[in-house]
Amino acid sequence: MEERNFETDAIRAQSERTDYREHSVPLYLTSSFVFDDAEQARALFADEVPGNIYTRFSNPNNTELIEKLCLLEGTEDGIATASGMAAMFCSMAALLRSGDHVLASRSVFGSTHQILNMLFPRFGISHTYVDVAKPETWEAMIQPNTKMIFVETPSNPALDIIDLEWLGKLANKHHVILNVDNCFATPYLQNPAKWGAHIVTHSATKFIDGQGRVIGGAILGTKELIKEVRFFARHTGPSMSPFNAWVLSKSLETLAVRMERHCENAMTVASYLESHPEIEYVKYPFLPSHPNYSLAKKQMKHGGGVVSFEVKGGIDRGRKFLNSLKMISHSANLGDTRTIATHPASTTHSKLSTEERAAVGISPGLIRISTGLENVQDIIKDIEQSLLASN
Ligand SMILES: *Cc1c(COP(=O)(O)O)cnc(C)c1O
């Protein structure tokens, strides 16, 4: 097929039209599919012919979502999962064995920490956390049994940036699978596979849905690795509901325009906060003050929709600030049309110890703002009144 642009693929890649000649792809709410005859059933189960058997294995809505995501990420194959965490867990569990080791950037999502710290040791899978600020130390931490490098960039919520080109080369040099959680960037802002990632994981719950409705995830990657992931998923059952796949495929149609505005609003909010005397510090990948500003500029199209900052006055002031917000929602999600403020230390990352949080750049008063699609002046007005009210 002819090369098309991102926006066009996001809209025009869709399942084949049925005899009903529908314009928008219908929802296939069916748990199983009918066989024409005994021979077809046998051939389908033997993987000799393509086709749907049972929705835990595949479904037209899930297939459409994955084909579209593969086009947008530049990957060969993938599977849709019931949540982002199902994607993180399966992408690791399917490809690792007892005795294997994972090298992970310290600043990964809270539940990813729990998988590595609390669950994988039960199955004999070990890990080492590496410091995002000291990439020169990583290579020496690769062990003979290291099978995977797992990173998140930009990270949640500290917005650390890891050099994907460098990491892709390092992973290939050591024949290690590179797995990148690309949730914060979305395929619109960054394509880790282009830099050598073998697996790209997503929480589709965030910007891909973009409207705070459904939970979902995706594992994308090379044909060879996804074959193993698909086997694991088919028999363990983390499949996405067709309804969610249908919602998410439609969401992708507007991803580009939404991300443009999310990023524009986030940049405006970040610049406003940086010049505000009541703010201790602001972190945003496309602010020149970000320690990896030039790297972010190199591998991302825009800075993303999330801004992290600390209000002067530490945790007490931070809590007062959250309680004083009038329009901005206080919630644990992100990537919604509605601007959301979160206090990671007491919510999403509360299961980490204070030392672990400090090591991943989550100071006690850190506030994460997922900049929505409201008029940015109204977002700033709410932040402004809340800063005044909490003083
Ligand atoms: C939210 C999130 C996840 C988990 O996704 P769910 O859809 O909530 O299961 C994983 N990684 C990152 C970076 C996230 O922000």
Proportion in helices = 25-40%
**Global mean pLDDT:** 96
- Poorly predicted runs: none
Strand order of the largest sheet: 1-7-6-5-4-2-3
Number of helices: 15
What would you call the structural class?
Answer: alpha/beta
Descriptive account of the structure:
The protein is built from 15 helices and 12 strands. By secondary structure, it is an alpha/beta fold. The chain has 2 domains: 6-252, Type I PLP-dependent aspartate aminotransferase-like (Major domain) (Aspartate Aminotransferase, domain 2, 3-Layer(aba) Sandwich), CATH 3.40.640; 255-389, Aspartate Aminotransferase, domain 1 (Alpha-Beta Complex), CATH 3.90.1150.10. Helix 8 links the parallel strand 5 (177-181) and strand 6. Helix 1 runs antiparallel to helix 10 (242-253), helix 3 runs parallel beside helix 10 (242-253) and helix 13 crosses helix 15 (376-389). The longest helix has 20 residues, at 255-274. The radius of gyration is 21 Å and the shape is globular. The structure holds pyridoxal-5'-phosphate. The site of pyridoxal-5'-phosphate has 15 residues, from helix 4.
